[in-house]
Task: structure prediction
Amino acid sequence: MKIKKMGYLASISLAALVLSSQVFAAGKAPMDAKVVKKAMVSSKASIAAGKKSFKTYCASCHGESGDANTPVAKVLNPPPRNLADASVKWTAGKEPADVYNTVANGLPGTSMVGFKASLNEVQRWEVVHFIGSLAGSKGKFKAVTKKNVDKIYKQTQPKK
Ligand code: HEC
Result:
């Protein structure tokens, strides 16, 4: 009897946990603009952090080096973009704001989903910095600086 009751309680708390994590993901408050803008300017440390997140969330499709030579890539249509080849065109563009918006919102109708629920704004920018370090965006990716940070920040805010 006691055991049964405990199982019942455990399943209630598990349900509550699942529910609250969903609410949390859906209703996450935007991070402080100052914090985000700081993270928008690339550094060695942010590229390294982005590389880690990329390995966790993106490499299954795009490969650790971004060349999209993965088993998963062979069965997806459209296949994941090769992010390591400068001659490949990207639908949404290769500027930092474009890449950020792709990472946040995904590309409709493809298996490229948005990563808002798993990566916060700072982590998304870290991934953007890592992508900016890959050969695929070479020449097109103009890094964010203190001068253009406000403009680019605006381009990455959800439309109201
Ligand atoms: C389930 C597989 C999958 C995962 C995981 C995935 N992607 Fe993609 N990604 C795709 C596909 C498919 C496309 C190409 C869509 C198309 O052809 O329009 C793509 C395209 C892209 C592009 C190019 C966008 C453009 O404008 O063409 C970027 C940049 C990108 N992904 C970054 C990421 C990042 C960063 C992550 C991890 C946070 C990630 N992807 C995770 C499948 C994936």
Notes: Residues 1-30 form one domain.
